[in-house]
Amino acid sequence: MKPGLYEQVINRLLDTHLSDKRYKVETEKIEEEESPKILSKYLAEILEKGLYNLKDNCADINRQIELCNKIIDDIANAADHEGLKDQTIEKRAELLLAFLEKQNTVHALDDKITIIRPLTSICK
Which among 86, 113, 82 has a CA at the least distance from the CA of 98? Predict the structure, then answer.
């Protein structure tokens, strides 16, 4: 671990470095108000690494979706929030790119008209 300023959730691996007496260590408790944001950001990073690892080990997108849906299901059960189960990913593995009205638009006349999209992704 390199010396420096951090704003990192302390995990098991990181904790092993913190007892080294050659370094000054400063920590603070995660505030209750900020905990969902901080912990979800941390989990998103772990999930992304895990999904890339699955992909690199020849797991297809279906296996990745299964893992994501299991996590969503576990969160829904732990949070006692059945509505979260509606957020599971459909097995067809598609992204919605447009949802436009046809009535009173050019799409009512010609369903084959190309929808113009930005060159860069609108997702982060």
Answer: 113
Tell me phi and psi for residue 61, to 5 degrees. Answer: -65, -30
- Other Cβ atoms less than 10 A from the Cβ of 89: the count is 14
In this structure, are residues 118 and 86 in contact, taking their beta carbons and an 8 Å threshold?
A: no
In this predicted model, what pLDDT tens digit does every residue of 16-55 receive, in sequence order? 999 999 999 999 999 999 999 999 999 999 999 999 999 9
Domain ranges, residue 68: 12-109
pTM for this one?
A: 0.77
1 found inside a domain: no
User: Do the beta carbons of residue 93 and residue 65 sit within 8 Å?
Assistant: yes
> What is the C-alpha to C-alpha distance for residues 78 and 75, in angstroms, rounded to an integer?
5
Contact present, 30 and 63 (Cβ < 8 Å): no
- Please choose, from the candidates 76, 75, 89, the residue with its C-alpha nearest in 3D space to the C-alpha of residue 43: 75
Band of pLDDT at residue 57, cut at 50, 70 and 90 = very high
Question: Does 32 map to a domain?
Answer: yes
Please check whether residue 74 lies inside any domain of the structure.
yes
Tokens of 93: 């593995």
